[in-house]
Amino acid sequence: MLRRTLLLLPLLPLLAYSDDRTARKPAAWIQSGVIYEINPRTFSASGDFKGIETDLPRLQKLGVSILWLMPIHPVGQLNKKGTIGSPYAVRDYDAINPSYGTAADLKHLVGAAHKRGFKIIIDVVINHTAWDSVLIKHPEYYKRDAQGKILPPNPDWADVAGLDYRNTALREYIVGMLERWLRDFDLDGFRCDVAFGVPTDFWEPLRVRLEKVKPDIIMIAESNVPDLVVKAFDIDYSWPFHSALTDVFENGAPATDLRRVWQAERERYPKGAVAMRFSDNHDEKRAIARFGEKGALAAAALVFTMDGVPMLYNGMEAGDTTESGAPALFENLPVFWPIVERRLDHARFFQDIIALRKAHPALQQGEVEWVRNSDADRILSYIRRDASGEFLVVINCSNRPFLGLVDASGDFRNLAAFSPKPATPPSVSLDAWGVRIFERQR
Questions:
Q1: 3-state class (DSSP) for residue 84
Q2: Is 82 left (phi over 0), alpha (psi -120 to 50) or beta?
Q3: For residues 347 and 280, what is the distance between their CA atoms, to the nearest angstrom?
Q4: N or C: which end of the chain has fewer CB within 10 A?
Q5: How far is C-alpha 414 from the chain's CA centre?
Q6: Strands 66-69 and 389-396: what pairing?
Q7: Using an 8 Å Cβ cutoff, are 308 and 325 in contact?
Q8: How many CB atoms lie within 10 A of CB 166?
């Protein structure tokens, strides 16, 4: 009966890229990398650069390779949200938040990170500023209404003022500022907040200018706009995929939604486009709070075995639930690192899956082939394949066990780190929120 059900499942066509352009090809270290997002104010007990530097050995052992620091600038206080204000309401682009340390402290952190093989980038917020920004003395730099009143980027973002990139003097100032950060601190690039709100015709020449300072950089766009990955950015956000992931793992939507969204995005983007994959970030409650402990690991398994570049957020590997109510953007909510002692499976899982990805190019740049299974509403099954190897991934997106079939034949080896109970496809069993990863034998 299971076999007959399996054969009746529809196999959706693999959509090709319909955009006739080719995306910018990221450097090999970007495609093989793992991004770790750090909120400096909450990452350590000291809430500063030195607290991050102290933890570099652990991050190195974890296996992440690209450290992304959320905004490090002074935080605006006028019209601020929460007790301390958002780090994305920047008061001075050329300064460092004194609570994080000095310029010398940042340079020491960057140097120490480089010695351990990390790349290190900072978050830049150039779509808007704080209302008490040093740039407010230039009202011509800002979006204004007919009466000349400065406007926020949208009504919901009342703590920030929107910048107007029709002003050429503003453009030149922003370019020079970013060149200085890249040059003076030996940074490896930038994560660009609300990149979709800044014109593409600013980003593309900016990339050229920045590469003259340091050729081998990474530019990450917080965006889901295909134009931006043609020339300006290496990777962008897979927001639609993340939304589908949330609907499936938190709201019980059918697992087929993830495949449908993945295919739609593939069709919409230029050939070769690379996205950042994530299940947790600074804009939402922690994944563990939204999906539960086992659900959070299942969602992370999808992120780390799907195409694109995976990202971990600030204590996620410890199973931290500090931001279970609201993200730590407007309050000081330090990561509760001791929780790792009660959730050792989280630390082991991330270390193992990062090591697996790092060891196998097929899990970095390999093609994705979706394969059928006998319960497509709850189970995701797909193959990652390149010339060097092939992996079958099966994930239960529900809180009910699964015993059924996956349409994959051949000599597959069960990877014990993720699938302690032996199994051989096509017959597969999964616990609630279970994950199995198989490697094809050659």
A1: coil
A2: left
A3: 15
A4: N
A5: 28
A6: unpaired
A7: no
A8: 10
pLDDT in tens, 71-85: 999 999 999 999 999
What does each C-alpha distance from 382 to 235, 258, 363 come to in angstroms?
23, 12, 12
Beta bridge partners of 427: 405
Helix (H, G, I), strand (E, B) or coil at 382: strand
Q: Are 77 and 159 in contact (CB under 8 A)?
A: no
Q: What is the DSSP string of 195-251?
A: GGGS-HHHHHHHHHHHHHH-SS-EEEES---GGGGTTT-SEEE-HHHHHHHHHHHHH
Q: How many Å apart are CA 35 and CA 275, to the nearest integer? A: 12
Q: Identify whether the C-beta of residue 343 lies closer than 8 Å to the C-beta of residue 359.
A: no
DSSP string, 306-328: SSSEEEEETTGGGT--TTSSS-T
Taking alpha carbons only, the member of 123, 138, 128 closest to residue 89 is: 128
* pLDDT digit string, tens, across residues 221-256: 999 999 999 999 999 999 999 999 999 999 999 999
Specify the residue for token string 């995701």.
380
Segment holding 384, helix H or strand E: strand 379-386
Residue 156 Cα distances to 124, 146, 160, angstroms: 20, 20, 10
Nearest to 373 by CA among 407, 401, 423, 410: 407
